[in-house]
Specification:
BlaI_family, 6 helices, WH-like_DNA-bd_sf, BlaI/MecI/CopY family transcriptional regulator, two-stranded antiparallel ribbon, transcription regulation
């Protein structure tokens, strides 16, 4: 579709981030209808439910039945969602070592130092 009426295409995962951010800003569990209202932008109710279902499968939201609908609660933050994506990419590759090596060698020095520190902290937590 071209022309004035064309909607700009969202980046992959953008709606997930928007939905998770809205849930995290809420003062408690919320319905898909509430999220639809918060997000605006002409999103269909079914689109919001689809995104919530995907987030549920990723373990970053939980749901509990409330009457005929569900109440949704965040179980992770945006960093947790990004980490899930990283795990998914890594799990889909045959040579995990090559993927990790390529990732690490491409890191800027500051990120490499941060990663080393985080790995040290994780090791300390496992040991103690």
């Amino acid at each position: 579709m071209t022309g004035e009426g064309q909607r700009s295409r969202r980046r992959q995962g953008e709606l997930e981030v928007l939905v998770l951010s809205a849930l995290r800003s809420a003062d408690g569990p919320r319905t898909a209808g509430w999220l639809k209202e918060q997000l605006g932008g002409g999103l269909a109710y079914t689109t919001v439910v689809t995104i919530l279902t995907r987030l549920l499968a990723k373990g970053v939201v939980t749901r509990e039945r409330s009457g005929r609908s569900f109440l949704w609660t965040p179980a992770a933050d945006i960093a947790g969602l990004a980490a899930h994506r990283m795990h998914k990419v890594l799990n889909n590759e045959a040579d995990r070592g090559a993927v990790l090596a390529s990732f690490v060698t491409a890191l800027p020095a500051e990120d490499e130092r941060l990663l080393r520190e985080l790995l040290r902290q994780a090791e300390d937590q496992r040991e103690g």
